[in-house]
Fold these 2 entries.
Entry 1:
Amino acid sequence: MTETVTFYIDGQAYQVAKGTNLVDAAKMHDIDIPVFCYHPKLKPVGMCRMCLVELGSLSVNRETGEVERDEHGEPVFRWFPRLQTACTQVVTDGLAVRTTTEAVVQGRNSILEFLLTSHPLDCPVCDKGGECPLQNLTMGYGPGESRFLIDDKIRLDKHVPLGELIYLDRERCIQCARCTRFCDEIVGDDVLAFHERGRRLQIVTISDPPFDTKFSGNTTDICPVGALTTADFRFGARPWELQEEATICPHCPVGCNLSAGTRLDRDAGGKKIIKRIMPRQNEWVNEIWICDKGRFGHHHTRAEGRLEQPMLKQNGAWVPIDWPAAYDLVAAKLRQYGDSLGVLAGPSLSNEDLWELRKLAGLVASEPKLGVWPAAMTGGDLVAQVGVGSGTMLRAVGPETAILVIASDFEEEAPIWWLQVKQAADRGAAVVVANARPTKLDRYARAVVRYRYGEAVSVLNGFAAQALKDKSLTGKLSESRVAGLSQLRAALKGVKPAFGDAGRMLLSAENLIIFAGGEGLSVAQHRELMQAAANLLILTGRAGRANSGLVAVWPGANMQGAYDLGYSAEATQALLDTPPRMWIIGAANPVAEDARAARAITGAEFVVATSLFMTPTSEAADLVLPRQSFAEREGTFTNGMRRVQRFYTVQGIIGDSLPDWKIFAAIGERLNGPKARISAGAVMKDITAHVPAYAQASYPRLAQVERQFPLVGGDDLYYGGTAYFNLSGLGLAIPPVAEDGSAQLEVRPVTVDAPASTDADLSLIPVRVLYDRDVLFEPSRLMHHRVPPPSVELNQADAERLGIADGDRVAVEGDGYQITATARVDGRAPAGYALLPVRLSSTPAPTTPAACTVRKIGE
Amino acid sequence: MEHILLRDLDIPDIRNFDVYVANGGYEGLKKAVREHTPEEVIQIVLESNLRGRGGAGFPTGRKWSFIPKDAPIKYVVVNADESEPGTFKDRQILEKNPHQLIEGAMIAAYAIQATAVYIYCRGEFWDLAHALEEEIEAARQANLVGDDVLGSGWNCPVYVHLGAGAYICGEESALLNSLQGLLGQPRVRPPFPAQPGGGLYYAPTVVNNVETLANVPWIILNGAAAYKAIGTPESSGVKIFCLSGHVARPGNYELPFGITFRELIFEHGGGIPNGKKLKAILPSGASGPVLPATGEVLDAPLTYESVAALGSTLGSASFILMDEDTDMVWAAAKMTHFFKHESCGKCTPCREGTYWLERIYRRLLRGEGTMRDLELLKSIPRNMQGGVTLCALGEFAANPVLSTVQHFYAEYEEYVRHAEATREARQAAEQMHDYTLGEAGELPEAVGQGGVR
């Protein structure tokens, strides 16, 4: 434990951990030391000088070592003769600070006067107006009137695009460097910098393309003035008109907590719509950061083309029908095809949707096949066994924790986890990256492990074998609770420890977190990878502990929830192997994404799909039901670390759309199922009663909040951005089975498939990219410049052999699919492999590795 | 007496390696390395009471003693970013006696067991920096610099780095940033350069001025006591005084501390040309307060302590002299413009304050000043002082304004009086213009309605 020390603010004694920043320490005791440049997530720079205080220390008699006291018995302090910045001071024992003396008041007053001299007086049209620290502190501490002549004001550019998403107003900038420090310290992207000096000191972007980072929007949150604004919200509304609603990002497995600024909007016909998305503080999940996809990818909630009523295909044409007719039709079809029903659940269905869908399928099929989509990764059941333990907090891990990221292009697949792992590496955590190709996390890794696609399992087996050989690397393991241990040990005997340095780094730390992606693996291979990861964690005694465990980097927001509720990718594979006669497809677009799925679905007799838009999958369906986006309804997502989190109704309903759970429950009623629940919360109540792991996840429990540090939201005058404040719930982390000391665990030897022969053809490896053409993302038009055109990455040698140059148009073909794309020859693809970013082309391609040929085609 | 620092005045070709060696050059380094432990060298310099000649006057030996012994990597950085207006002493050493600097830097490096020496030259010293590189190469070939110095097993290369022409990079932490390829802005201290995390590439670093280091070989050769015997007990040794402005013989004068302003200006500098009277003195370039040339000032000895007692600073001892015809408002405006131009912009009071002050001076000089502006000139600079800025530049920038307002307020008032007179005259002229228009047939509205203007 860190030592607690006593320090004094304005004569009052307080306790705080030694080494705490003075501004933070005061804040913890609800005492304000106003700041502009200081931010508790960034290193102090002492630039703005707003936090000037008088500093001193307890006066101690040198000879006796006793604190000197005055005639009233009060301790005597010695004071520095000059003002000091509080932000550059850490608390030590006996430190004293005065925050209200005349000198301090005068100091703050003059700093504000200086800051305001050339600051424009455009608060009435400034996006920050109303939640602006400069505005607030001016009211709180500033001079009442200006002594500066307006003619003396410096005039600078007011519309400087820093890339397509962020605009800079140079007149408003107060040179606090929060934005540049965020990019340098937190993200590590060298994209913003200061240019020039003195009063000409200005922010510029130094990257090409400009402001090239996936986290640019965060700079607008931490900007203490209205200098940085987003293209999305700029001049869109005034902060005080907005109602902030709590929600959860529907895009990836991190589950970032969001605050949606909403208002009744003229442009939406008076409906309540989202005007902007900001992060909502949850130190267990996203802290106060979100990626640009989460911030700007909300336009699907109200984009043109949203389905507004159920549509039935009659003689090849779509006709609208009403809901009761639609329910009746589906119920009738389910009675007809109940034995041959396939269910595909999309990645952004909430737990409530999944639960009602499962119940519906259970009404007509004895063993319903519940598939997930995309079906590229599996092993959610293993995550439930050996996932991260209670109290896991990525933002707090350091040298005591090792992190392995395997088979994932982490920044593309889970940006905020990437950000947190990168910072953990900065704090001294041993980060090891294992992948068949270079990824951006490599630069922060202490060791990088390269394997050939398909051999990811052997890396983990190698680590496990190493742990068996070197007992010092193994933690406490109670052998009696683990089944299959002897078989595993026997199987690992023959395995040669590989990548010894990386293994030692991973296993010599106290904790081990494994982030497992699915790149380059079939579903069967991925199960082996997840099992190998579980084996390693159990074998080394790391399972079931805080800051240790297995996390799947799912291709969607709620796939862990789907596994927890009985869905799996194996079921999907079985369905595709023997296609059913009827499909229910919930919020997924397999027809556009996968050729094999497209064949299986178009060949069925009746397909019903819930969807936001007319997608290739809804086009292929017989009945399309308009679902509500995450913004129009309540629900819960379970993130990749198995934290169940609530999202709330944020905006008005589009058309007659309904939440998926309500649709499925209403159909169930017509099949003599139980009466539909009236709210998502009631559905969750059912889940808590039937799914033991979710027993505690009731809505009131999920809505609980606690005081979070750093305190950056709330009603202080200087951190601004009230949207940060989390009033709506931190969610509930579900402990893994392994955490229960009496629970039985199981290990099993895993097999390594020999990699496919690559003599003649290339192997196609689907890879995930953040900015794709997913249904939830494509409607956000302002992001289109970031979405790359369909492309395929080739190795230099392969490209030469095939006569293909970077930028050529090529056809990528294989069993049952053909797409055209632009060839990229940039050194990332290993020889023998073609990397195909998924969800970029409108033609379906494989979603798991497959054989392919690539040839150049004419212009 | 022979010069200690400006030896080129005694031996014209001393910049050549051979000539320097033939005149006892590098004997100090040899003596230090062969006869003394690093701790002894620090002790000698400490006892000599050599103080930093860059302006702050911090005891050099103490600075060296702060370097942690066990740090694996340590640096000596030579501050050759001589940018203070009216300061040109380091330039003469670099240009005419470079080996004495190299030798001094190497002794400092030996004392802290540095792993490298960097000489940071201001961008305008392009020629000097390139010539210096050749001299370093000569020393390297003689095994005085580089690998296995003098067979001691200690390796210490010397590098020259050119800045890009920024006054602020003479501030040691901004210098270190610039040397690292970062923006030339001062750092937050602590950690100080001598501490881990505060120096060059965040390793413990000694930053010394050129003139400071040039003293070191002599001290090693002649002993601490001999050096301390020169000058005064607090301000020991010799100092190069730069004389410029209204003076008959401008230039560098190496003299012991303790001579008076009067001796320096009138005996050595030859007094004020054209029979004019001396009006004011800037004792430390633009950064220290201006001193009026009173008898009390002229008879004060030149030591750190006595100049401080006069309310100014000795700083780098760059005396810019101003005769009775000098317009002090204009002079203060020039200095304010300089500081506005050179402010790095990192911290608020300096960035905004220098800009604001410059605007006010611009108005004053244009003949548009008001009494309100004079009140601002008294108050704004005060808000830039008292620890509110990150480095000393903000404090310096306030000095010329505050001191000229204090000592030469009448001149400011004269500007405003003139401006007001002009304003009144202009208003009268404008009124005349209105009446003229009226007489020509277009009556002002009020007049047309029977009103009286």
Entry 2:
Amino acid sequence: MARKISRRKFLAATSAAAAIGQIAKPAVAQQKPVKIGLMTVKTGGLAAGGVHLEEGISCFLKDKNFKLAGQTIELVVADTAGVPATAKAKAIELVERDKVDLIMGPLAAFEWLAIKDYLGEHKMPTMGFGGAEDLTQRHRDPYQVRTSDSSAQCLYPLADYAGKEMKLKAAITAGDDFAFGYEQVGGFQSVFEGDGGRVIKKLWSPFNTPDYVPYLAQIDPKQADVVVAVYAGANPLKFIKQYRDQGITLPLLGGSTVADDSIMRNFGDEAIGLINSIPYTLDLDTHANHRFIASMQKYFGADIPIGFYAAALYVNRFSKRLCRQLAATSILTS
Amino acid sequence: MSLADTPCGPVKFDDYGNLTFTVYIRKVEKKGGKLVNTTINSYRDVSQFWRYDPKEFLKQPVFSRDFPPLKSQ
């Protein structure tokens, strides 16, 4: 029962803070804090992005003095190490031991897929970050929403731009040999070919590929007029360096993970000219973005890398739909 | 802070629990000795279904290694 009450508190707090929903506030503020469990990656190959997720939500809560609509918010951070089995163990801890009211994350789709059914059984409101299309399409859970982008989402406008603005006609794609790569390429191909272009070759390499030269050797500039690279993690850095080292001059395009603002300092001049598409950009000249950047620099230092991962969790993206579903479970009427 | 006023620009949830948002097309440039992204175009209200009808979209299989297939040349 305690958890039901605290979920109600959470809804009241977040709906007011985000100016969404019409859920009544409790008459008297409860003393027990509302708990958010953040599942992120702080160790291993995905740690850079994982740390940025934590910075984003921490920055948002600090700006709000850890209070939303008068309710104290407590953040519990779990490190999944980017390993599905660890993510499962951490999810169980957050749900059954920490009794969190909401889970944010996990970072990677393969982690989310590993805990989706468990969280569903516990009707745990979840704001996941992984991209796998079907988590919000063919196999979605009514309590789980995505606060990042679906894998293909940024590739549609990129393909539109490539065809209509850049007048490109023949693409070779190159990416990591797993679902995130396939789904990005599928999105690009659909729109690009719908506009009259053609994907003529798809190159897939294992995530831990040390050397892209055998793949780059398959790029024939006489066959194609553009290369679309959809790598994740640190792979864009390696691929683009070797791409230029091989003397390839075809224009290079990529999605939301190839040139996030937070990784730009890791590139050399080989990245100049790279066209990329993403839901957040550091140069967005709005009050909300300037305020976000100022807060990040205040809490984490003037040199803090800032990009989409932090920006996506800066605002509490709580959905009206999720509120309705929670209401339907009698949590709000008990 | 409303969902209309995030650091990313306006965002909103679709009926499937995924956000629609602005997608920024950017070009990497060197400015003041540093590599930065410069926004060169933007697309508002981009959905996970792009401009396709969601019901029709969901009738096709999820994108995979072989879908959509390469067309014969």
